Amino acid sequence: MTATELRVVPRPRRVETASGTVRFEPPFALATGADVPPVVVSLFETLLERETNSPVQRGTDDADVELRLEDSPTNAPSDAVGDPEGYVLEADADAERVTIRAASADGLRHGCQTFVTGISRVGEGDGHEQWTLPGCEIHDWPESSWREFMLDPARGFLPVEQVKRRIDQAARAKYNRLHLHLLDDEGYALESAAYPRLNQDADGAPHPAYSPEDVDELVTYASDRGIDIVPEIDVPAHASHLLERYPELRCTVEDGEPADRTICIGSEETVEFVETLLEEVIEQFPFEYVHVGGDEWEMQGYSWNECVDCQAKMAADGSETDTEHFYAFVRHLHDFLAGHDRRTIVWNDQIDISMSPDLPRDLLIHFWRVAAPDRGPVEGCSLERFLEGRFDVINSYVHAAYVRGWITEDYMLGWAPTRRPTVPDDRASQVRGGGLLAWEPSDEAERAYFERALPSAMPIFADRLWNSTGVDDRESYSLSVTRHALGPFVPDGFDVYRELGGLILPTWWKRPSGTLLAHVNRSLRDRTPAQAEADYRSAIETLSRLRETDRTIYPETASAYESSLEWLVEVAERDGRGVLDRP
User: Minimal CA–CA distance to 314: which of 306, 197, 471?
Assistant: First the structure.
């Protein structure tokens, strides 16, 4: 049995087949060692009950599943126990028991996720269902220590319950970081006691934002699932909202108008403002890293070369260029955060890595692409140069990581954080991992595509971070992602992505909302429109039945796919439509 055949995403690193099958008849019986953290036990119960709609009994002698926290799980390769997130799962058909062993709570969490997403249903319900797991021994650990998923509530505010659902989906795919992009042109997503106008619209009406109680709830919810939250305060650009509310942070320009999307970084008032904002963030988010943005100030327009305060600061610092002025600002934020026991993350695109920048080497560089002409330094810049310059990097390369408009199935399945862009073998350890980025559009109607795109994009990207070996059997992999996205009650052989035309649904944000809900040409394949229409309708019935009987873990996903399939039905019904015609 291969990792793909096990139907678990991300695919486990090593699966050794054993004889027989372990069978479970609800209620599930769970046993744990005394040192297993209660939060892990509670999470496992929650996951298993949600997955199977069946109860779990704790503390029984004749257990179906046992969780063990061990310093050195037996029969495990060194990597599975040496990695703090490694685990061993043994399904013993003779003993009729599954044992999950790990050296840490995080390892146990991942083993629990593998179990609940790997079991299969036997029977038709009404009290006669059984659940099975093939006899096997799984040794598993992640290739990448930094596995991030980003949400953007600054542009499109996301209610707490929706963020929690995304945290659930992220934990299911074994992510360990949630990056929250909190400040941008459209708004600020945290309540600020020091600067309350940040939480107002232009007319003074309240702008939605997370309260301290909301943040506490999200931090705890994520932590219980093994996820740390990385807050981002994006400065100095993307600052329209900030400057509209606090215009005193604009540059002081004697002739002409100052930039309206980039703050002044030469005045003490601006620096104090940013520090105070960061202090509020640090107080609420306990994780050791804070993201300070730093992207796109060149393309957004800036006034530093005309600003009285910036020119004075540059003279005092000895900065000869605007880029060096920016570096001085980043150094100041880095030192400020270090004084609060925090480490700094910054986007890469405004750093001229063709030369050795005057920046601390413990900055964590978030790479998304080399800047385009007139948008930042281009010549001689690359991911490889950051590594040669002794920086550690998070790889969010735009063609693999930007859900909003860039990613494709073939590219993502061939991507790995140490593979694209090119990473020399002797520098691979400096690439911590990667992050999948879900940039919200400000237009609420356009956000619906995330419900179509994320349920598959999230586990596939996570798979590339956890286990970057090639996907040899695309059909089996698609079945696995279907099971991951919809849950274990999907009928055997049901592949929703086959009907939708691919694993990654269209995400191109420049199209008018709702005009492309699936890959119609790939969906039709060699079928006539009439044949395709019948299959679409059958898939709609399957999804509708799962949703209406509470047998899909995420009803929102089933509903989104139904809408896509209904659109395909409309396309197939058009007169004269041929397989190669475009919609």
Answer: 306
